[in-house]
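Record pair follows.
FIRST:
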Amino acid sequence: MKLISFSTANGPIRPGILFDDTKTVLDLSPNGFKSTLEVIASGTGSTLATSRLSLADVRLHAPLSNPPRIFAIGLNYRDHAKESGMEIPTTPVVFFKLPTAIVGPGEPIVLPKNSTQPDYEAEFAFVIGKGGYRIPASAWRDHVYGYTIVNDVSARDVQFASTQWSMSKCFPTFCPLGPAIVTADEIADPHALSISLSIDGETLQNSNTRELVFKIPELIEYLSSITPLLPGDIVSTGTPPGVGLGRNPKRWLKPGETVTVTIDGLGSLTNPVVAEQ
């Protein structure tokens, strides 16, 4: 199942299910759900609603705009750690992105005036369904609702001006998310998915989730050993090599470009890039 948030002309944003084969959207709001977070927290993918709309008649938004938290994992691909000039971590490197940074497919990434080094980062993310505290790694599948795509846009000059990374990741529009949350039952092995990023058709990142240093079981066990995980929490698992920071010369995002992140089974997330006015 592909859980989405959508709207029609002049209508509110509401939760739905996307059917790729028929290019239709099932509206879940008649079931009493006001948001995808409510669907996730309910532990169901209820399809009792019968109201279907043509995909051509709706606008897709970020599939989850109000997660309790967005955990992000740094340096979680070996080659990315090396290109960043940092050691491969022995404990997950965790920072946060704020929900106010979330935008959906097709929405612009706005480059802020107070940064000259905006960077891209293709990331595979998972969404918590059943929450819990001190979850053993062996029980990880019981707690994953589904998977989605994140572009962890980063202001590198802000990031390395201090030892704390989160502020550099939290400018408005710095968390493109979507286009859907694909439920866990549709992805046989989340650790065997191709992940890539292109700008205007040029591939700049190309890897596979098998290269993750810390995979989903370890991340769930580690995070939940410190804070109880909540339904709707997003965990963005890190970016593979090929980011602008690691290139020679360095390659920053520019207004007028279009960025696309593609992950097997999850589709593609595309966003144009504009300058802050």
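SECOND:
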Amino acid sequence: MTLLFDSFWRAVAYCLHPRVLLLSLLPLMLLAVLSLGLGYVYWDAALEVVRQWLQASAMVDSMSSWLAAFGVGKLDVVLAPLIVIFAVTPLIVVVSLLAVALLMTPALTAWVAEKRFPALVRLKGGSFWGSLGWSLLSTLLALVAMLVSLPLWLIPPLILIIPPLIWGWLTYRVMAFDALAEHASQAERREIFRRYRFSLLGIGVFCGYLGAAPGLIWASGALLAAAFVVLVPLAIWIYAWVFALSSLWFAHFCLAALQQLRLEHVPAPASGMEVIDLDSSPSAPPHDPLKLPNSH
């Protein structure tokens, strides 16, 4: 528990560093670039497709006729841009966050190693392709667990327990692997996963609950179209900050655990004198340096 809380407060302190705050702004910049680029290329075509779909909808046509009676017309002109924005923004957000994940996790782990563990030997027990395969396999297992457990979500208390447990398990599997990929060997990584399984799962679940907070802001932006432009970037920035906190927490915890593991296997220095414990081996008499060996 000491290691768990020590790594947590260190991660929080690192999150307030200007470097982390600047890294957390990356998704906003990526979102702006992707939005402008996609809007320049596909905006008019997307609007035309959505307008045709709205005009062919009987429900929208009846609503337009009802609004026209009150002097409000052209419902498709108002709805089409909103539908395009709501449809495209989640895709842009996911791409932005994935790109930031690839940029932030290695940078933050290397930063923690440089600041706290400069003497920790890098055994490079994980590669890029190994990390990718591990992440894909873990994600697949998490999705299978989600599908299998769906009937249990109908029970009110379990919907607040099962999904965070699954995503917490996925978070610790992926982030702990990435935190140890550069420094730990495969045997060391397996031992840390075995020894600190519940602590790592607890970090993942806690970060999973933290990640639910931006979702509330996202839902508010979806309900309040006028605040969409403000709330969605705010939610993305909070997502990135929570992701940075998770990466730093796993980096501090895993590298400190690796250092402790290696210290356990360091042989004790020789004292230059042989110490004999008479109580532990009563059958072995002490060696008398004055007694000469028998000659035959």
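COMMENT: Residues 14 and 162 are 30 Å apart (CA to CA).
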